[in-house]
Structure formats: C-alpha cells, structure tokens
Target: E3 ubiquitin-protein ligase
Amino acid sequence: MASNSIAAHVLMKKGKRGAAAYVHADCSNSTSPQHLNELLDVLLNPGKTIDEWETIDWCKWLIAGGKTPDEFSSIVRRYDNATTCGLVWTANFVAYRCRTCGISPCMSLCAECFQNGNHAGHDFNMFRSQAGGACDCGDTSVMKETGFCDRHGPKAQVNKPPAPNDLVCVAEAVMPRIILRLIQHLRENSKSGVSDVHIVAIQDADQFLTMLHDFSAMGAVMRRVMTGALTNPQIYKNLTECPVADSEYSSYMEESQRVYQEVLKSLPNPEPPDEYKDCPSLQEHLVHRTFLEELVFWTVKFEFPQKVVCLLLNMLPDPDYKEALTQAFVLHYSRISLMLERSTDPDTLSNRVVHVSVQLFSNESLAYRMAERLNLLHVMVISLKYMMSKILIQNSLHDPDKNFHYVVDCGRQVMKEHCYWPLVSDLNNVLSHRPVAVKFMSDDNLLEMWFSFLSLFQGMNVNQRELTQHVEFEPNTYYAAFSAELEASAYPMWALVSHLRDSSTVDLTKSVLSMCLAALQEWLEAVNFTHPGTSDELQVSFHLPLHRYLSVFMCQAVRQQGVPLREVLPPRDLLALIMMHPLRVQVAFYEILSGMWVRNGLQIKGQAMTYIQCNFCNSMVDADLYLLQVCATQLPAEAFLCTVMDKFNVLEWMSLAPYASTHASFLEGEHDAPMLESCLTFLATLMSVRTNLGVSEAPLSQLELVTLLCMGDKTHSQLIELMPERCSTAQSRDFEAVLAEVADYRAPNLEASGNMQQGMYVPRPQVWEKLYDPIHVLLRAVHRRDFQTSMDRFTEYVQQAGKFRGSGAPWPPFRPPAPCHPAYEDPQKLLRSRVFHAAAFVVLHRAVHGQSVSEHVMALTVYLLEMAVASAEPLDPQSQVCQASHSEETEVTDKDLSSFYSSDWLSSNLRKVIHRVRIEPKPAVVFDSSDSEIEWEGADLGEAASSGPVLMLELGAGAGASDESGSSRGVGDAVALVPGTEMVPMESPSPSPPPSALAAASSSEGNDVVAVWGEMVAVGAQPPSTPPPPAPSLTAGDGGPSRPGTASASSPPLPHPTGTEMVPAGAGAAAPPPHVRTPVRAGPSGAQASIAWAGPSGQSTSTDVVPVATPYPRLARARRADVLPSTSAGRKPALRKRKQVMPGSSGSPDALEVNESIISLLLKLHSHLAGTPDSFNPDEPEAAAAATATATATAEAAAEAAESRVGDGPFFLGKLLHRVAALDAFCREAIREARDRLWPRKPEEGEEEAREREAREREERRRRAKERQQKLMAEFASKQKEFMERAMETDEEALSGMDWREEEGATLLASKRDYDCVICSQTTPSTEDKPMGLVVLVQATSVLGHKRRSMDRAPLPTSDEERGNLRRDDSLASEFDRRVEELNMQFDSFSWQLSVNLGWEGGVHVQTCGHHLHLDCLRSYLQSLRSQQRQQSIAVDRGEYWCPLCRQLANSVLPLSPQLGECAAVVRSRPAGLPAIVTEVCNFLKENPPTPMSSSLVEAMAKSMEDMTNSTYHKFKQKSASPTSQSLFLFVSSIARTNLEVELVQRGGSLCQAASTAAEGSGALPGSGSPGAEASALLTPKRSCIVPLLHVLAMHARLLATWPAWQTWQKVAGAGPEPDCAPLALAPLERQVPLLLHDPAALLTQFILLLPLHLDQTYFSCVVKVLYNLLYFQVVAQLSCHLPEAERARRRSCPEPMPGARWSLDAAVALVVQTLEHSQLYLEGSTESSASSAGDLEMQVQQLCLPFLRLAALLRHHLYEQPLPDVTTPQSEFVRLVYYLELVSEGMDWQHFNAAVALNWAYGEAGAARAWCEEMAAFAHRSQVSARNFLAEQHLLWQQPRLLRLPELYDRIFQYYHRRQCTQCHSVPRETSICLLCGALVCLRENCCKQHNVCEAVQHSIDCGGGTAMYLVVTSSYILVIRGKRACLWGSVYLDSFGEEDRELKRGKPLYLSPGRYQLLEQQWLAHRFDHTSKKWVWHRDGL
Ligand SMILES: [Zn+2]
Ligand SMILES: [Zn+2]
Ligand SMILES: [Zn+2]
Ligand SMILES: [Zn+2]
Ligand SMILES: [Zn+2]
Ligand SMILES: [Zn+2]
Ligand SMILES: [Zn+2]
Ligand SMILES: [Zn+2]
Model:
C-alpha cells in the first residue's frame, strides 16, 4: 500500500495530462495496468468524500488518455453509432407523440427528433411528460421507421467507422473502479436511520453522478464501456470481495459488505405462494451478481433518485444493457411494491418507477422473455395481491354474520393514494403484448391468482342506505373504489380481451371464463348469497369485477370468436344468482336518481354518476346490462320480470285499487311513481340497447356521438373526451367520418360582448329525425337534466322544422331496436310474457284513471307495448279459441300479475276484458294535510273563470264520454256512469261563484281543490253561493264497500268522504283548468287535497307529485281543452265517487269492477290525450294518422311520417293501435267492438253539434283571452328589453356597430343643463352647491407611447435573428425620453416644461359610461358600498364603485361645471379683424380668471384632479426633480392632450373614415375583414367626457399659471408688448426654448385651458390660426434641414410675396433658409436626398401639419359641438380640416391650394416668422448640434400603436420561448411569458425577478404599459392581461384546427393564430376597455 501510493504519487506529479498519457500507453498494452490501479487506489479512496472536484477531474483526464477531456469527448462522439436517440427526460419535459408513426401507444419523441422527422399530416400532439420518459426515435419495436429523424434508425449509422481499439482502453480500466466508488458511497449512506438520508446521499454524489452522465452522453462507444463494467459478474465479484490482506481498505470493505447485507434484509420480499418459491424473482434472499443489480437495488432502496434513474435509463440504447437492466429491475420488482406501500410520497415514487418500467416493458420481446424466464406476470400479480392483502376488511353485504368474504378497505392509503398504480400500469403495459397476454391466459394458476385478486374488489365499498338521518360525514372512499376497479380490473380486462379476436383463441377465452365463474361461485358462497331471494335491499356495492369479466369475456366469445352462447353460459341456477347483483346495482342506481338515497349525501349521487360516466360505462354499466340481457333471455321470462318488478318495488304499485300506492311498505310514498318510471326505463333499456348484442362498431360510435351531441353542442375535444372508451385504446379511426355524418361544424365567432366561442359541432337534422335515441341518452346522461336538455333540443328542432305542430310537447322518440346478433335471443321476448301484459294493463288503467301516471310513464309503456306487438310471433302457438270471449267473467287478483292472463298470447291478452279484480282491504287512511297546496298563476285565473265549463270536458275521456246518451250506460265493460243523477248538476248548472270569489277561495289555505287527471273535485271551503251538490245518492255514502271511481252504476253507494264536500259542477268548472293530467297522485293522502297542476307554462307546480322531471310539460293541455266537446255532466259524479272512495273506513276484501281490456284502455287513453272522444280512427291509414298528428298534410310526407317517431301521445298511441289492429283479425275486431261500446253512434246529432259549437265558441273566447294576455306579456317583455338596452348600454352595442354619436353624444353635449341622477332619479341642473357629476373611470395609459415610426407591425421574435432586429427604441415613448433629456440639458426647466406635453407613457385617460349622479348621492352610495363586507371585486377604499345604473367599473367622478353647455356665451364686442382678436385673447390671458370661490363644486373638482393625479405612477408624473408650478401645469395640461390623442388613436389615427381602413388593412391582420370605419367605431367611446374634463383641468391650470402666459401668446402671434404695435424682434433669451422648438399642440392645450372655455369660436379660430403659422414655419424649417445644400441654395432666392399676396411654400423656404443659413444649422455639404420636386415638399408639409390640425379639429368638435367634417379620402383630410378650422375661409381652385394658403398673419406679413427663425439661429449659435437635432426631428409621423405581430403557428413561439432564460435572472421561468407590446420575457409568478415585493410581470406592466399589459403565457398559450391591480386570463389567440383553445397545451395539437381574437385583444387595449370586459378579474397583489 505504501509503495503503491508512492508510485501513485510519482505518477500524479506528472500532472493530469502527463499521467493520463502514461496510463494510456500502459493500458493499451496491458490488461491490468499496475500503475493505474495504484493511482486509482489513491484517487478513489473511500475515505475521501465522493464529490471531491480534484478526484473527478483526475478521472476525466485519465480517461481522456492524454487529450483534454473536451477533445476526448468530441472524438468519442465521432464514433457514436447509436441508432436510437434514447434521450431521457424527467417530469414536465415537452415531448411529442405521433399516433401515425407509433406502434406502441406509449411512444414518444424528443422535440429535436420530432422536428427532424417528417410528421406532416400525421396525427401527432405535443405533451408535457408526467412521469418522465425517453425518446424512442430509432427504436423499430416502438415506432415505424418512417417517423425516424435522419440521425436515428438502423440505416442512419451504417457508414460510421468503428472506434480505434485504444480509444477507450483507459476508460475500460477505470470505469469499474468508478462504479465501485459509487456503490461504496451508496452503501455507506444507507446506514444512518435519518429519514432524508437518501436524498442527502445522492446530493453528496451529485458531481460524481454528473461525471457519469457526461460519459454516457459521449455516445455508444463510452456507454459500451460503462455497461460492460456494470453487467460483468466477474468484475463485480473481484471488486466487491473483501481483500484478504489485513489493510485499512479491507476492513473498510468488510464493514461495507456488512452494511450491505444488513440493508438487503431490510427490504424483504412478499411471501410467495409455495409453487413459486423457486422463482428467481421471488427469492427471499437477494443475491446480486453484477454492479448493475446492486445499483438497481440501491435505486429501489433510495426510492428511485432522479439522477440515478436517469443514468440507468441513459444507457438504454445499448441493447444488451437493456436486457440486463430489465432483468435486474424484475428481480427487485416485488420489493418495489413494498416501497410503494411504505412511501411517504407515493405519487413521486410511482412516477419514477413508471419512468423506468415503461421503458423496459414497452418492448414486446423483452417483456415476453421476462415473463418466461423470471415469471414477471406472477411477480406482478403476487405483488398486487400482496399489497391488497394487508388492507382487507370483512365484507358487509347481506348478512354480515354469515359473510366471510374479505374485501379491500377503500379508506386505506394504498387505495386512496393509488399506491398500486405503477404495478397496474406495468401489468397493462405488458398485457398489451399479445404473446404475454396469451401466456397470461393460458396459465391457470395465474388466472386463479388473478381472479382471487379481483375478488378482493368484489363487493367493496358497500353503501348502506340511510333512512332516518343524514350521514354525518360523506365518505370519499368511492373515488378509490371506482378507480381501483377501472385501473386494476377493467384495464387489464380490456387488454386481455383485445387479443381474443377470432376462433383461434377460443380456448383461452373459455379458460378465463371457467376460472372467472369458479371465482364468482366461490364469492357467492363466501358472501352467503345462496338464494336469489336473499335480501339485498338498503345496501349496494357498485363493484362487481368478477361479474364484469364474465360478461365481457362471454360477449367477446360469442361476438368475435363465434362461440355458441350455450357453451359459455353458466348453469341456469347459477345464472339466477349471478343476475341478482348487477340487478341490484341497476335498481340502486335508479333509487339514487329518485332521491331515495338523499340521506347518504352527495357522494352517493357521485357513485351513480361515475357508474355510467364515459370512462366507466363500457366496463361497468354496459357489462352489467349485457349480463342482465343474457339472463333475461335465458331465464324464464315470467320469473325474470317478477324479480325485476320486485326489486324495483313496483309490485305494490301494480294495483288497481285506488289507494294501493300509498302503503307500499318499502318505498316512502313519494318514491313509488319515479320507481315505476325507473323500472320501465330499465326494461326499455334492457329491450332496446344493442351495445353488446350485436351492433357493430361504426353504428355504435355513431350512436354514442349522437347521444353526446343531443345533450348539447360540443367542441371536438369534448366529443373525443366524452366518447365512452374501453381503455386508453386509440380513438376509433372512423371517428372523424362518423362525426362528419352526424354533425355540422360551427366555426367560432367573436361575440359582440367579447365572449369568445370555440368551434362547435351541432347535430344535423337527421340526427333529430332518425338517430336521437332517448333511451340511450338516459343511459349515458350523467345528469338527468342532460336528458331534459336533449328533449328540449329535440322539441325545438321538430317545432322549427315543422315536423311537429302540436301545442304540447312531443313524446320522446323511442326507437325500434336494431336486430339482435343471431347468437342471442332477443330480450324483447320478455315482452311476450303475460306478466308484462298484466303490468301494462295496470299502468294503462291507472293512466286512464289518473293515478300517478306521468306522461313519461305512458310513453314508456306504449313504447314497450309497441315492441311487444312488433316482436309478437305472427301466429302465436295458441291459436286456439279466442280467449277473450265476452261471455265469461274474468276476475283477477289485484297485484298478482300472473293471474291476469292464462297464457302469453299477446293477441288474446290485448283483447281480454278483465271484469273484476279482488282487492285487499282498504288501508286506514291518514290524512296528510301538509300535502295541501294550491298554486297557480294568477294569469290563469281569469281565463279559467271565463272558460270554466271547458274544464270538465277533460273528464270526457277519463270516465267515458259516452254518458250523455243514456243508451251507452250499462254496457258491461266499463265506464262508470252513475245513472240519472249525475246529469243533474250539469243540466241545471249551479250558480258559479264569481271568479274573484273563486280566486280568493282557491288561494286561501285549506280550501283545497283536487284536480286529478280526468276528474276534478273541489273540496273544502266551498263558495257559499254554491248550493250543495245534488248527487246525494252518490255522495251520501253509508259506509258500504268502497268502490273505485269507476264503479258502475249498479255498485253500492259510496261512503262520503270525511270532511269534504262536493262542489257542484259549476264550481268545479270555475276552478283553474286542469292542465295537469297526470302526475297528481290520487289516493287517500290526497284526499284532503292537493291540487297540482301545471301553470300555463306547462310545468307542474305541485311538489310532491312529479319527483322525476318528465320531459314534457304535463300534457298538451291547450290542445286538449280546445277540442273537448261540451260538458258532460255525467263525469262529475263519477269523479266524486272516486274521491269518496279514497278515505274511508276499512273494509273487507272486495271485488272491484274493472271491465277493461288493454285495447279499450288504449282507446280511452288515446281519446284522453287527443281530447276528443273516439279519437282513434282505425280506418285512417297509419301514415295519414301520423300526418294529421304532425300536421304534415302532403302525401309525400305521409309516407315518411309513417316511419316518423315525431309526435305526441295520440300519435304514438295511434301507431300502437294500428299495429295491434294489424296483429290479427281478432284484434281488429276487438278494437272496433271496443269503440262501439265506448262511443256508440249518437242519435241526437243536433245536440251534439250544438255542443260542439258551444265548445268552439268557448274555445274561441279562451283563445282570444289568451292572445290578449300574450300580447300584453309581449309588450311587457319588449318594454323591459328596451329598458334594459337603454339602461345597460354596454360594449355590446358599440361593438355591434350602433352609432352612439348621433343620439347619445347629442344628449350630453347639447346639455340642457339638466341631468338625471342615476341614484335618486331626480332631474336637476348642476350647481355650485349641489353639483352633479359624470361617472368616470380614470386610468394610466401608455398606449400613445407605443406608437412607432415604422409602418409595419413589429414581429414577435421567434429566432435570435429576429430578436436582434426587434427595435425597442423607435417608439414615441423612447423618442420623447430622448428629447426631454436634451431639452433638460439645453434649457431651463420652467421654459421647456411649457413647450411640450407629456403623458405618452403613463398618461391619464378618462372615460365615462355617460351616467350622471349627484355628488351627494354618490357619497352615500360609496358609504353603503364601504359598509358592505363583501365587496371583493372592487376596491372601495380606492374609490372604486360600480356605476349604479350600468354596473360598469368607475373610480372617480367629473363634476359638471354649471357653465357647461354655455357655448359661445362669452363674447365681448366681436372684434373686427384678426389683430383685434389677438389682442382680446391676450387680454383674456392677462386677466387669468380670479381664483374661484370655495364651493362644493370646487372641492369636487379638486378631488377629481386628485383622483387623476393618483391614477398614474409617480415616475410618469413629472420629468424633473422637484415640482414647480410649471411642471404641475405640464402634468395638468398634458391630461387634456393625452385624452385627445387617445381619441385620435381610437378613431384610427386620423379623422378620415377611409384612412383608418387603409391603416388597419395594412396592419398585418390577415382575415380581419372588418372595415376600418367599423373598427374605429368599435374603439371610440360611446360618450365623450372631454369637455367636463377640460373644465376640471382648466380650473387647476389657471391656478397654476403664475407666469405671464400672455407673453408667449404675443410672441406666437407676433404682436408687440403693446396692443396694435408693430411686430417686435424677439430678443433671444438664454436657456429659453425658442418658439420654433415649441410643440404647437402643447401651446394649443395651454391656451385653451387658460382661456375661458366657453369663449366664442372666433377666439378659438384665432388661437388655431396663430399656432398654425408657427407650425407651418417649424415644418418648413425642419424640411429645410433635410434639403441638399444645392437645393437650399437654389431656393433661398425666392422673393417674399408682396404684402397682401398669398404666401407660398417657396417664399417660406426662402425666408427660413435666409434667416437660418448663417447659424451653421445646416450641415456643410449635406447631400441628404429628400423631396426633389416641389410637389413632394408640399406633401410633406401637409403630412407634418396634419397631427396638429386633427387635434385642433377634435377640440373644436367637442367644445363647440360642431360635427366633424366628412373626410372620405386621406388626400382630402388636410384641406377639409383647414376649412373646418376656418384657416381658410374663401373657396379656391384646387391648383391654387397648398398649405401656405392657410397662413393668417395678424401683424405684418411674416415678421413673426422671421423673428422665430432668428431666435432659433441664436440658439443654433450656442448649441449647434443640439439645435440641428431638435429641428430636424421636430415633427415626426407616428403610426398607430399596435401589438406585436404573432406567427401563424404557435409552435414557433413555443419552441423559441419555452425553456428560454430570463435576461434578468438567467433562470428558466416555469411560466415563461412574453409582453405583446415589446416582446420582453418575464418571469411570471416567480420570486427570482421580484423587486420590492413586486413580481416581474406586474412591474413590467407598469414600465411598459402604464399599468396595462398583455402577456402571452408560453406554456399555456393563454393571454394574461394585467390591468392596474387586477389581472385576468383573457383567453387564447391561438386555436386548433377545430377552433378550440388548448389551455395549458393539454391536448398539444397544432395551434394557429386567430386573427379575429388577436384584433379583439388589440382593440380592447386601444379602447382602454379591459376593465369593462366580462372576464374573471382577480386581484393580483403584485404576485404575477
Ligand atoms: Zn430524440
Ligand atoms: Zn432521432
Ligand atoms: Zn408521424
Ligand atoms: Zn341624486
Ligand atoms: Zn353608467
Ligand atoms: Zn413590454
Ligand atoms: Zn425575469
Ligand atoms: Zn427571474
């Protein structure tokens, strides 16, 4: 050792390079280089810390073998012949997936490989990696070669030369030692018991690991060296065995070995079943044979440290290594499950495990080898089972004492935290490989283990129905249960099934089935479910994985593999047991929907919804339904039906006794009707769903798509997402084709409100006509309201399309089911059972007699009957005697449905008349007065009163309309007619109470009216005027046996209902119309009355009656009422009788007269619903009937109508009756007979006609009343709408192009001086004492500062080159900054501050909604806002409030000066000439109006000014250090300038309507087809507040103007100090800004603010004229600077015009050049080429003068309410404005017109001009360069402010910016965001760039946008808008090809710029309207 180290030290003395060269020579010759090892002993001595820089550097140099590590690295890379990319990434990395190129669905590509490959037109997407991954480019087992990039793939490396032998010889010798060092380090650090020890250990080795990563990155050659060292058992043995010598090192190694062995034991294996004890991967003792195996062990032990995991994965491109790693991984696999279960952060660990395993198991052959050699599958299943075995609890299904099944406890961490997820995910991955799956299914042991694992889920998470009180806390275990069943059971199931495609694999299927069945049987025994009758009420578990395996494999066997059903069918007795649990799930599902589980909380609803949700439905509900369908066909139909009805608890309801339903023992009373509906829905579903009974793929996906579309329009991604899926199987290929067939694409629109739509798919017409399947919608509708929505949409469509014109609602268009696969019997066979016929009979009977039968139930019953008829065998076997003979009396037992009919013969049963039913004794009745409830809509009352009698007609159908004619009475069959007496009330109509009385009565508590369908009894407080009902024989009951309402005349008298009195017909008639046919629950509990009817809207207002929303308004009441013939008196008493029956004393079992057949009931129901007696006409062909019903009268339509499913009740009933008639002759005859019996031909036609006429008249009256009422309502509605529109005039209107200027502008400016206060609604003028104010929003703006000089929109850089080209300094803001700096240098600040305006950046913008209020009123309003606790959306303390009227955000108020509107009020003597006016103006300025008296108004103005001052940021307020009156004045006057300039911008940059078009058109907004005029209308505010604003500013300006402003005026005007004196030569003053450098527009705002605002226009014009002169000469002087010297010389000689003559450009140039040429202002020899022709020069002059003219024109427009001139072309703008401003007043020839004609001199001709120039020359003498710069750039042309131009493809932005560093902090922000104004990249929401607690994006919004900024968040594609202290996610301006946003880039599809949206964003910015957009604004609290 000592000598060794000496040798080593000698070597080390050579230096790294020298030593390396020496070692290299040594290594290339010998295999065990002695010196090297000695050196390594020293370097890698475990006594040193592993991360020593020196050591690592030595290693790198040594391996480089005499070269520098960098040189060496690049040489090794040269020989890299890897054919795969293998780039490893971790979570959040952005990668790509191409479904076109992928073989495995897990395939992924790195961005580089993706971009270098050709995936044009492929189905690819970008995604953010969750668990990490690796690039598959070049791997032929994972993806197709066509998708490889040019650097990868087998063909890419064929020409690579092999590496020279000695290149890596040192590395080969060193590498094992390096790895050993790592292992030693890991061993050492496993000792301590500290919890974070792993993390620390890995951190300690960080540099060391980085070195290894670097080696791996050198490519295949170096990786080979590494993997060689890792996988060679000999190396491992040699290096880890303890050296014999007793040295320091050997004792270290001994200790190391000891620790290692100890730790090995700490990670035990789950005990394997005996037969697998020998399995190498399930060994109890781990034996490691290579470094790799031990390294994997430590990886597991250290919970998969990222850096080690990546290192292991980095080397995967080496194929041998891949196998070795996989093997090592599998060896430790069972231990991983332990780690998962123990981990404190299972989520992260899971991701890391899967990161590794997905790379290893995605390879089919590798996975298969692992399954073969290392029993991978067994390991997986055992591990899973082991994991679950620790969390078992006893199952509580059925009788818990006898249940010895154990299930997982869903409340445990393993379940809740998904700890099993990586195992399941791996299992699914390997099962996707066919050979592995086949192996799985051929191994019985494995299957047995698997099913015993699944049994642990079978029946888990049992729910117990709460009956008494609400659950205290809602368990959330159901998430765990459902996801476990899906992921651990269903996904593997679908993976397995997917390999069973044809008959070749039948054996596999069969063995799966038999193992499954065995497990199922075992389970049934374990839970002690031995008999179908075993109670399962009150509890349910949704989890039946064994049943579902059975179902799915059975289905697959029959459907795909051609196995006869019987071969896979369980034995029948077992089947009867198997059926019960899925049935229980179904029943529970409906119970939950019916509200029977409410006490279990919301979570139970969550379970029901999850059960049918799209990700689960295929695996759960569909599988259950299939199994039940099979049971329905394989078990005796009668038994099956009875079981179903029993489980649904509807047998009690199946009673003909009127009181039956109430005492259903199990159901709480209110649930029976919905459960009946549920039961029928379930049956209809069972009958008609074909999902697993033979419908093929394409129609199925069509149906699923249609179902989704019917529930609502959807985006493409929603459709993809919501399509039921089995397990991550790729979307079926024909998805797009099917979609195109059934839906139309609706491109996204920009809504006027700024709401942004996405591209939507809407169902096509044929969907509604042919494809919409209500049953399927019910099956998939997670919310019942979705079904309701689909019905509403259907109704809307059929009504609009004219397919349905009934006034009611159509019935759901239940579809006839498709045929079944021949292997199955059709489940419709159930409908051929007499039990069903009996059930239908009862339902119909109750429907006809109005007992809790909703229309939906009727529709379902009719649908089922229709199917029964359709599926009836044409000739039933029992074509014996007609069983429905009239002669024999049939008496059946109530509720015993099998007793009704003696056979299953449909024809016979339809016809058979049930005469009598034996019913149970009446129950004692408890009156439930709480039911009493009367509701109606007032509107109905009048109508009701006026058309009273109609009401009774209702009954016609119900009780039999034939009663009028005595002859019909007594016909054996039926209708309860009370002889004689019943006519009385009608014949002599009793006096009706006056409507008002009725109204009063009926609305009072306790006066109860019972309206039951088909009957109506008013009970309770009877109007006093009404005589007692004559019908004593009926009502005066004597307690005899009760009878149902339909008791025949001969029946014994009925007991009088206690406590109720009969209301005579008249009174009844006066009751509101009985719209409600149905769902009123009749029965004893209703006796005390509950009236329920639907109001005119058709909605039932009754609470207890209609628990499940039925899809239609109660009934087509209008129609019914319309048609009803006149009153049939007989009905009334009949009803009454029913009523009387209900409450009553108990009686003995009784027989009830029924006398109905299904046919007669159908006929009655038809007539009921149609509202006419005998409405069904069998002779009318079905088609015609349909045509009538749908009001489609044409012949062609008739044929179509026959097929149609669009219609109302009579339509469907008619259809059914026609089918019945077509069934056989018996039926036809039976129908005819029944009709004759029910509605005998009446002799007294006349009377009948009279009645009809009466009815018609009544109906007419009713209709008119209704129309009147509707009209009234319409009027209200329109008034309301009008009001809303007027009041709430918001952005929409402006956006929709309404021109406010015409009308609204006028109201404000025409200022009648009276204003409406929006708070107190008083109209008053604004006075000094009680001022009014204008609601305004004040904000800082930098919009103007973003004007740029270049015409083109600057592009958002997407490359370094573009980034370099992006100019940030050509904006107005930066130009202004430069100028101010220069001004400050050259001049006194008091001087220059009066020569410019600021506010280009951070200026103050004021806008108003146009509403006025008293300032006093506002004060109390604000007070009240402040006291409201929850005003989180506005900052009341900062003065924010909502406009009380329009709710727009406001934060200040502009007081209205009483002088407002006094236009032209101030005129002194109108002066004659310009000089006189100039003098007048001068005097006004001198006077500088007196300081205003203190008043409320003045105070308010001061407050308003304060608000404005506070609205912007300090740095924008002033450019000089300390505030002076000049600097404050500058700020104040600049506010006026800013607002005028902003208005100009909003008008498109000019006052020319067409100009804005042109400007916008060139603005790189492709496709934004909006004309410019419109665009500018979008931007301009609805109401201007500039004049009130000027008043406020003026008041302050005058206070501040302490200097003699009139002197400036005199200088500009060219007047001497004394009025009328000669022009004065201007003495150049030191450090004062020469006039020629003053901004004329700034002077304009100054003068306007200092002069009285309501001055006569003459004065205004004068100011403009004087300033124009200055401007003109400024421009000329500026242009003269740009003239070439020669040109200047040529032009100087032009003579001055004669006095009085017009000035010309030439003369002006000459004057300027002459005066300035001596100043050295002009550069000698300047050859700057410029305007060569005079014309060009003139054009330039005009161009440069325009900005001033526009501003002046706007001012004039606002101050004097003069309409702006109509400028149509940009060329005419100058001339128009010059005339408008009265600079030129006489007309002239176009040829003579030029800018000079607008000069107006007050004194002399151009004396003033010469003086200005001389002043300038003097300055130039002093500061030549500065003067030249100022003058040459004095007036610049600025383009409109714009957002940056965005690239068409989002990917360009993404690729350039994501992972780009911030220039400030150099880190990569998580949410990289780019400013759309300047392209700056900011760290959104990061601390790195936070300054003074303000995050970067917020700070930048202030710096760049004056508080407003728009950012593109690169990682999400969204636009983030920051506006002041708020922020919102605005939406995305990038949409995918389906017009959808992709927030957070979740889908990763290519995104394209939406020009319309981007334009909208820009417009909202320019319009300063963000605060008014309806977005979700939040307070950002500087945290963005
Ligand atoms: Zn790659
Ligand atoms: Zn590649
Ligand atoms: Zn591709
Ligand atoms: Zn008021
Ligand atoms: Zn308002
Ligand atoms: Zn910016
Ligand atoms: Zn930053
Ligand atoms: Zn940063």
